[in-house]
């Protein structure tokens, strides 16, 4: 908080990746509207899956078979990512749909010990796999083969993993909070991340009554690195 406050006071211009982050800077730090420029990140969907290698080796390492049904989360395993509620919701979902697994791919973060302790107590680790850090190639193998992407985060400044899942044409369950609706648009299933029941309902809907995901490609087109670069250069040259 202290460093952000100092940056807000001293910076002539602040570039942020979402309108939600802009609102937070104004609300929590009193930043003037004129200082803030919203420039979205980009994604190159056409090249994402061109270099996926060693698929069988990666799946074997993750204890997965091609026939497995699994949901994927990618990100730091920490409290703000809402991992514990996701695990509990998945276990409830699994009572009705027993042939599914959940992969939580990412490094350990703040609150991981509690996540691991509670997951162990719930006997979740047989069906909820935590492989730890994954390489870019491993991530893309998982994205290619997963049946769905789950991202019920409590807060995101942007939410880049959602666009990666869209690039692979995967249905997404995510939170209607912070910047996520800006990124995800109307091509996902939204849940209330603060309740296990809402997350579970989202997972069930994913299987029983998935929405039309045809708009994913249209949504991706809104986020281009060329736009990000040109707008960033324009800000720099204006100073």
Question: How are the SSEs placed, and which strands pair?
Answer:
Elements: H1 2-10, E1 14-16, H2 19-29, E2 36-38, H3 55-61, E3 69-74, H4 83-96, E4 100-105, H5 112-121, E5 128-132, H6 136-145, E6 148-151, H7 160-167, E7 172-175, H8 180-184, E8 189-191, H9 196-208, H10 216-220, H11 225-237
Parallel strand pairs: 1-2, 3-4, 3-6, 4-5, 6-7, 7-8
Helix pairs in contact: 4-5, 4-9
Structure description:
The chain has a six-stranded parallel sheet with strand order 5-4-3-6-7-8, sandwiched between helices. A two-stranded parallel sheet has the order 1-2. The two termini are about 25 Å apart. About 45% of the residues lie in helices and about 15% in strands. Strand 1, helix 2 and strand 2 form a beta-alpha-beta unit. The model has no long low-confidence stretch (mean pLDDT about 95). With about 240 residues, the protein is of the alpha/beta class.
What descriptive keywords fit this protein?
239 residues; alpha/beta; six-stranded parallel beta sheet; two-stranded parallel ribbon; 11 helices; 8 strands; 14% strand; globular
Brief write-up:
The protein is an alpha/beta fold and 239 residues long.
Strand content: 5-15%
Q: Using only CA atoms, what is the Rg?
A: 19 Å
Number of strands: 8
Q: Which sheet architecture does the biggest sheet show?
A: 6 strands, parallel
SSE string, helices as H and strands as E: HEHEHEHEHEHEHEHEHHH
Helix content: 40-55%
Low-confidence spans? none
Strand order of the largest sheet: 5-4-3-6-7-8
Broad shape: globular
